[in-house]
């Protein structure tokens, strides 16, 4: 593949561009009027950069039901690598932002800022651990997976794509959009069957959920699995697939989302001070090594 072709498949200069766009879409309620100038508010309102648009074009075109099945098969056997949690963070940090290495925090620093913000508010320690681990699935990029199969908003496959999903118009390029098996409101699912019976588009959320599912309590697993499912936790687009239990658990997902999106700060946390606490936390819940 030529360099030009490759860059067509990696429109984002860094994975952070997707998250910056989330902040434009969902600026923190309450702080805009109080702390941010009108000018800053306008910046949030600015249309997403072309790179984000190009990124969603690929994501929406290629995330089909069959693609999800194929990726589950390929990655959920976890036979690529065995690492301790700390080795895994070093590995993840190889994902560097080539657009502006001076101003962007490493992946680990984002995770630590998220977990520290959760901890500062006195939430249970397993939620702190969910904060620490939630983006670990981005290692998929280091296994050669394209950006559109690692990050981006997630959504159910096997049923109609909601028009509340960002850049919904690009789903017309997805073969499932024309497939009668998959393009009705419920598709292959029964009404209110519960999200545990629904297949989500493939990415870093499902991968880390599957890796952690034997170790963390259920609310933490919901946070990991659905943290990029903005069409539901922000827009309520898939109530028709959720059951009562999902609705209860989504209170946790929404709570978690505010720490994920709004904990970013230019000051990196002081890891030397925090290390003993996190070593104990990791030892409490996780095995010595994790399989990737
Ligand atoms: Fe994430
Ligand atoms: Fe995150």
From TrEMBL:
Superkingdom field: Bacteria
A cellular component annotation (GO) from this entry: cytoplasm
InterPro entries to which the protein is assigned, alphabetical: Inositol_oxygenase
GO function terms (MF aspect): inositol oxygenase activity; iron ion binding
Record keyword Metal-binding present: yes
GO biological process terms held by the UniProt record: inositol catabolic process
Main location: cytoplasm
Places the protein is found: Cytoplasm
Pfam families in the cross-refs: MIOX
Keywords, alphabetical: Cytoplasm, Iron, Metal-binding, Oxidoreductase
Requisite cofactors: Fe cation
UniProt key word Magnesium: no
Family annotation (PANTHER family): INOSITOL OXYGENASE (PTHR12588:SF0), MYOINOSITOL OXYGENASE (PTHR12588)
Name this protein carries in UniProt: Inositol oxygenase
Organism of this sequence: Paraflavisolibacter caeni
């Amino acid at each position: 593949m030529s360099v030009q072709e490759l860059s067509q498949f990696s429109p984002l200069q860094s994975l952070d561009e997707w998250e910056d766009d989330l902040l434009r879409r969902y600026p923190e309620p309450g702080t805009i009027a109080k702390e941010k100038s009108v000018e800053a508010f306008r910046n949030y309102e600015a249309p997403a950069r072309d790179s984000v648009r190009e990124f969603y074009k690929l994501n929406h075109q290629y995330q089909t039901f069959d693609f999800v099945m194929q990726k589950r098969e390929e990655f959920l056997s976890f036979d690529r690598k065995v690492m301790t949690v700390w080795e895994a963070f070093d590995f993840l940090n190889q994902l560097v932002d080539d657009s502006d290495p001076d101003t962007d925090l490493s992946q680990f620093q984002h995770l630590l800022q998220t977990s520290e913000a959760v901890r500062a508010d006195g939430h249970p320690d397993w939620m702190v651990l969910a904060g620490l681990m939630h983006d670990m699935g981005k290692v998929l990029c280091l296994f050669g997976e394209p950006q559109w199969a690692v990050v981006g908003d997630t959504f159910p496959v096997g049923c109609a794509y909601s028009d509340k999903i960002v850049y919904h118009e690009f789903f017309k390029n997805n073969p499932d959009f024309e497939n009668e098996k998959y393009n009705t409101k419920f598709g292959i699912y029964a009404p209110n069957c519960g999200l545990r019976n629904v297949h989500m588009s493939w990415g870093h959320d499902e991968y880390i959920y599957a890796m952690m599912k034997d170790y963390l309590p259920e609310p933490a697993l919901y946070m990991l699995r659905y943290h990029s499912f903005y069409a539901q936790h922000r827009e309520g687009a898939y109530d028709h697939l959720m059951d009562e239990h999902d609705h209860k658990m989504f209170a946790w997902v929404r709570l978690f989302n505010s720490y994920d999106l709004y904990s970013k700060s230019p000051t990196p946390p002081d890891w030397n001070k925090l290390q003993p606490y996190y070593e104990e936390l990791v030892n409490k819940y996780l095995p010595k090594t994790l399989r990737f």
